[in-house]
């Protein structure tokens, strides 16, 4: 078990903050959002075994609110119960931007997106949920809403290989319509930063979207949002099992790249099918 008072002493560096009772208390709220606000239609949950560990890999949608993530988590808990542990990897910057919100997320199972934390979660028998594209994915332009985007992040592949766990893709359609990202203007704002414009909280966000959505109307920058009540369709896809596992496989760059391409290609194919099924 990793605790916050370990040698690392990093914010959120613990697995013990997850609180099943807190999760249970939120289930009625999630259920209302699931049934009446987002009117979620889901499929494919038979692909997750009743026992054992998996690495759930998703594509972020809908800005910082990412409603499809929350609806996926609700489905997990209502099907498997709040005692079946799953930890979600969250950007460490979250603790710097708002430690109270980050600490609440920890009660739901959020942990810093770091290989040591993800590995520790598997070591205690939990599953792990990762959205490799992070902020680059959640704020991708609306015209790319039906595109899988991992931002070339391959750490999740190495994690699956080291821990010998199957990857189960989780995809959605609709969540990226809960706000309309007009474009990413990070490169332009980065030039202003070099001229003296400070980053908010002293953090380089990596993205600087302009989007239409609640509550701002027109939002400039990676601001939080209230999702529009758009129907969301989610799907759990067929598990992806690689030919080789282990530390040696995780150190083989060509093999990691091949596994990454396989996951990307299969998830994009599944997303294309889901778009057609819901169109």
- The strand count comes to 10
Q: Give the biggest sheet.
A: 7 strands, mixed
Rg over C-alpha atoms, rounded to the nearest angstrom = 18 Å
Order of SSEs, N→C? HEEHEHHEHEHHEEHEEEHH
Task: Provide tags for this entry.
alpha/beta, 10 helices, 16% strand, disordered N terminus
Provide an overview of this structure.
With 279 residues, the chain is an alpha/beta fold. The protein is built from ten helices and ten strands. The longest helix has 26 residues, at 253-278. The radius of gyration is 18 Å and the shape is globular. It starts with 19 loop residues before the first helix and ends with a helix.
Outline the fold blueprint.
Elements: H1 20-37, E1 41-43, E2 55-58, H2 67-80, E3 86-90, H3 93-97, H4 99-108, E4 110-112, H5 115-123, E5 127-130, H6 134-138, H7 155-163, E6 167-173, E7 180-184, H8 186-194, E8 209-213, E9 217-220, E10 233-236, H9 247-251, H10 253-278
Parallel strand pairs: 1-10, 2-5, 2-6, 3-4, 3-5
Antiparallel strand pairs: 6-10, 7-8, 8-9
